[in-house]
Specification:
Largest sheet: 5 strands, mixed
Number of strands: 10
Number of domains: 2
Radius of gyration: 19 Å
Number of helices: 7
Helix content: 25-40%
CATH class of the largest domain: Alpha Beta
Order of helices and strands: EEHEHHEHEHEEHEHEE
């Protein structure tokens, strides 16, 4: 695996870092839990402020799914700690998740989070800042999702939560989820399962085509 080049199914690179909740070793910190590692370009910026506020407001949703959330940017610990006060004030929330102070860009480089295309997304020294990367990592430390947004576009964390729901239900029941699926809706039985076997497991199976079969769980 080339440095900063990750694929779905790779083991998440381990690292040590300083965070707003103390020093961590990433894999030990997440232990056997699901985790979301996400980066933002810079502290005290408008889009990032709204994003971290949204993540904080979803705290109960993360907890109910046994997900640990951790943020990252190329700012100092002092900057993070001051900025959290602004997030709490302006977004009417309380940031409870840790934020990594990746001032030397070591984690950002390891995970390929640095901006290579936006000349405005740099620090005062001209060094590239992080883009809006998201990694969903399962209890086995396997990377299950990667999304990268440009610095100018705020993320939809409801969509990220939806993907977590899909991954967790697909792992549990060995199914797939259709377009725009939401938790509680019908799922798809994979083509690898014969229809006669699927009917035994899913009495409410709806066979549209031999390869397209829906069922409720």
């Amino acid at each position: 695996m080339t440095l900063g080049t990750l694929l779905l199914g790779d083991k998440c690179p381990n690292f040590k870092a300083q965070t707003t909740q103390g020093p961590i070793e990433f894999q030990s910190w997440k232990k056997d839990s699901w985790a979301i590692l996400f980066s933002h370009p810079e502290d005290f910026t408008p889009v990032c402020t709204t994003e971290l506020g949204a993540v904080a407001k979803l705290n109960k949703e993360w907890e109910s799914r046994a997900i640990k959330v951790i943020g990252l940017s190329c700012n100092t610990m002092e900057s993070h700690e001051k900025w959290i006060l602004d997030i709490n004030e302006t977004q009417n929330t309380i940031v409870k998740f840790p934020i990594i102070a990746d001032f030397d860009r070591s984690v950002a480089t390891l995970y390929g989070m640095l901006d290579g295309q936006d000349p405005t997304n740099v620090d005062k020294k001209g060094m590239p800042l992080t883009v809006r990367s998201v990694f969903i990592i399962d209890p086995n430390d396997t990377i299950r999702l990667m999304i990268t947004y440009p610095a100018s576009t705020g993320r939809n964390f409801d969509e990220i939560l939806r993907v977590v729901d899909s991954l967790q239900i697909c792992d549990l029941h060995k199914v797939a989820t259709p377009v725009n699926w939401k938790k509680g809706e019908e799922v798809i039985v994979p083509p690898t399962v014969k229809t006669e076997d699927a009917l035994k497991k899913y009495p409410k199976l709806n066979v549209v085509k031999p390869y397209l079969r829906y069922t409720s769980l």
